[in-house]
Input
Amino acid sequence: MKDSELTVKHRGLSPKAAKALALSLTSNTSIVKLNLSDNGLDGNGAIAMAEMLKENCYISELDLSENRVGIKGAEALSAVLRENPVLVTVKLSGNELNDRAAIYLADALVTNQKVEHLDLSHNMLGQPAGEALGVAMAENVGLKKLDLSWNNFRGQGAVAVAKGLGVGKGTRFESFPEG
Output
């Protein structure tokens, strides 16, 4: 395979199919962009992709949007973010991520300074997520673009994110929820 981008969207891949795909990508050196959006991978499929990303140090852009990765998937992906020096773009929009999932991701962002674009839009993130992400933004100097639109940030959560951005160097919101 010589293409640098693999896009498999809207195909209904099962977690089992995700494991098979992850196995084949583990040693692939040509794919740098992987888009598996809207496939119903769930947490187990995300775990398979995370395991692959521990070995594959070529994929720099990952789109797992609309896959219901949930807490299990967020925890596995967070572990990879702590180790993987290559991922620059991570899209996790519409994945039923809640505050606990965001806390895992925020903890990873404190140590990972390589991710430049993070999309957490269309999830279920609220005040605890905002507070955790605010701390991460204050510590992280690599993140340049953050999309938190269509979440449930209110009051203290939104203030914490804003404060974190004020301390951080160069992060900007792609969009921020209105209301």
Observations:
- DSSP finds six helices and seven strands in the chain.
- Residues 42-55 form the longest helix (14 residues).
- The first strand starts at residue 5 and ends at 7.
- The domain at 5-167 is CATH 3.80.10.10 (Leucine-rich repeat, LRR (right-handed beta-alpha superhelix)).
